[in-house]
């Protein structure tokens, strides 16, 4: 009977997230992740075909976790105005609860080597992005924002603005202030009315 692996994928990806949060994508190497968890470097290659696969998995796991919560918030509200406010708050609240992952998401997929990802990894990323755009478009339509300017306003209110607030504090190495969710919601409401 084979011995169970000592280090599972989530442990390795958790270490990769911590490395990315403190040193950016260049800090996420096969040997750095192995060293961070005390694993032999060879064990990394049993789980990832190489650094591009590692970078893809750490990016995708993080963004998919964020997107799952974002979609749940959007789907959980029948009133589009409440859904919009909740979505804006979610960006900040999720970032507060997951500061390392939020720091990672301040980069983009390109910073995590998207050009070198496998077709499967690229497809996962594209599907997630399409789902977000579809959700935002549907919400925009229910809010009466049916032209390009209106859709841009919804994206600004529910994505760009909350992320800019998160970015300012995380890049400065400071915790998000207690009023961050309220401020983000107020600004989203102002943009959408």
UniProtKB/TrEMBL annotation:
GO terms for molecular function: DNA binding. Keywords: DNA-binding, Transcription, Transcription regulation. Signal peptide: none annotated. Residues 6-66 form the HTH tetR-type domain. The keyword Transmembrane helix does not apply. Residues 29-48 bind DNA. Gene3D superfamilies: Tetracycline Repressor, domain 2. InterPro entries: Homeodomain-like_sf, HTH_TetR. This is TetR family transcriptional regulator. It comes from Streptomyces kanasensis.
């Amino acid at each position: 009977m084979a011995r169970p692996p000592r280090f599972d994928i989530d442990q390795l990806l958790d270490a990769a997230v911590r490395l990315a949060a403190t040193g950016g994508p260049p800090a996420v190497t096969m040997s750095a992740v192995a060293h961070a968890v005390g694993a032999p470097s060879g064990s990394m290659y049993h789980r990832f075909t190489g650094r591009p696969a590692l970078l893809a998995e750490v990016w995708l796991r993080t963004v998919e976790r964020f997107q799952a919560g974002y979609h749940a918030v959007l789907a959980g509200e029948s009133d589009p105005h409440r859904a919009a406010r909740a979505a804006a708050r979610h960006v900040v609240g999720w970032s507060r609860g997951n500061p390392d992952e939020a720091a990672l998401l301040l980069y983009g997929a390109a910073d995590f080597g998207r050009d070198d990802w496998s077709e499967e990894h690229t497809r996962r990323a594209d599907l997630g992005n399409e789902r977000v755009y579809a959700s935002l478009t549907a919400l925009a339509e229910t809010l009466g924002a049916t032209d390009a300017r209106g859709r841009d306003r919804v994206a600004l209110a529910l994505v760009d603005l909350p992320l800019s607030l998160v970015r300012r504090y995380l890049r400065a190495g400071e915790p998000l202030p207690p009023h961050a969710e309220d401020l983000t919601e107020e600004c989203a409401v102002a943009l959408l009315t």
